[in-house]
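Researcher: Re-running this chain for the archive, since the previous output was lost when a drive failed. Same request as before.
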Amino acid sequence: MARLPVPDNDAGQWGNILNTFLEVEHNADGTHSIPSLDNKVSKGAQVFDVRDYGAKGDVIRLNNASATSASATVTVTGASFVAGDVGKIAVVYTEDGAGTIRTIASVNSGTQITLSGTAGITASGSTAFIVYGTDDSTAFASAMTAATPDGIDTSIGPNHSIGLGIARVLAPVPDAGGGYMLASQLSVPSGVNLDSPAMLFNVQADRYNPAILLNPYAVCSNITLECMFGTGMQAGTSGAAQAHIYMGNIRLWHVGQSTEGSGLLRSQDGLALLGYHFEVGNLFSKGGVRTVYHNPGTDALINYAYAIGAYTAVEINAGNQIAYPHLFMDTCGPSGGGANGVIIDNAASNISMVIQAFEVTGTTHTLDNVVAIGPTTTNVNKDISLKIQANNTGGNVLSMAYAQESSIDILASNSQFPSGASLPITTGVVYGTGNTGINQVTAMLETSITPYSGTLQGTYQYSRLDATTFANPITVVGEVTATNTPSTDIYNGNAIATGEEILPRLAVNGAQGLNASGSLHLTYFTARKTETINNIQMVTDATAATGTTLARMGIYSVNANTGDLTLVAATANDTTLFSGTFSANQRALTTSFNKVKGTRYAVAVLVVGTGMPSISAIISPAGIDSATPPRLNGLVTGQTDLPANITAGTVTGDYRIFQATITP
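Model: Regenerated structure tokens:
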């Protein structure tokens, strides 16, 4: 009967006693001998080690394998095959593809085995690998079942907990190294956290079936997955249901790059997101038709993603509220082109991405577009914020169709330093159909890159060789100020600080008398400020008005299409107006008015009396020149008061332009 050692006794017997004790619950190889662990590990345990459920973790990976596609014999320099390897799963592969998944049928020698069928690949040398080991799928499934907490409720939404906590299933690196073979899909239940620092190997017969399925409310702290040119992971089970899945550190190697030719037309993707609510800390993926496929994968934050050698790094199909603060695209696209690095399509919205895309020397990977918006459907994509940095990716930086409310910054170069690649980008932006005008693109481009093609929509500003170009007309609303830059315009540098002068003060060096009693003089101007006006002033010279019965100043707005005038503000009748020589004549408007920058106005002065005053003025080109649009001045005779409206056709030419100052 097993017992514990007794201190100060059992001299020389400690090892035997301890082994006897351990044999009660362990086999000779160290695994548990109890068929069911329910009596050993309760559902309240924090960690469920897959080795406690029979996982061997005995995968061995060797290079210098030698195999031919039509032969079942594989020779591996430096291997140490033993009879116990018979029945283990084995695959020969290279960096470019994998052979057929087989089992070891026989061990011919320490360096040679015979597979259960032909290797399915011809490979040799240091870049030819073989992996072999025991299928641990059943052990992983047992650990998942044991770890699944009670009281799980995934119907209440991500703002509430699903139960009392998250259980953890651990797949540690075995003491002797190695990883775990998965010949069946690993389904992570709700409420379970899969933590696998050790390498998992996807050796499913169905190469389009995701190796790992994360059910709603599942968690994975660490996933290290060798996809063996099959499919990677799927998070969520329904395109319309919540997923609420957190993923910490995801590492995917050798994702396949094939799509089914019939049936479900499944693609070999690194990570497929179904439903909504996903949080991903770090993602590295090599290969794949798509590194991440949002289908729709809504409400997703992928904090850091590194896609290397994928055809497409990210495809968003109808997803919304998606953010990629850091997306690296390293040598994406197939050889010769035929893919887009990022696809945003099918009414996707609220997308935010910061993208760096580049190609490395010696590759022939080419992207049709670094980013393509709306390439397939006519459903409008909106609320898109992108920052794209691209170098030698081939093709175009951005193709945009069926987009609105997009703000996109581009930095594009074909410099060969430091990557050494020479796959020049041809065009900055390709405009397709279906865009609205609510799009804004800003780009800094190398001179070898064509700025854009297609029918430009929205605004596009690009810079090349320190020259900034607005590809379409722009409208600036409000004041534009160049700080600490002295004016080169003598007027702008001397304009009054408050209010507006109709003529530059520096240019008014004389005075002119009004035409005659009842003659209404008009001086036209375009407002340079938007402000409320309450006062108007005109200055008399050597001659004052006499015998005045009516004297008024006013401001008319000018119709941009017809030239007709409408009185918008005026002073009251004041017979003392202009009664002194060399004097300012400022009067308050009876009603203030809002002067609008860019609007055309005309200042009016009218005196009815026996003697007309002289007022500060300049002489304009006479006749038809001053009447050429935009009109500079004008005269309307025979008036007894300021008319409310003036038809453009009743205004005649004049040679006098009178100065006036209007102020708040």
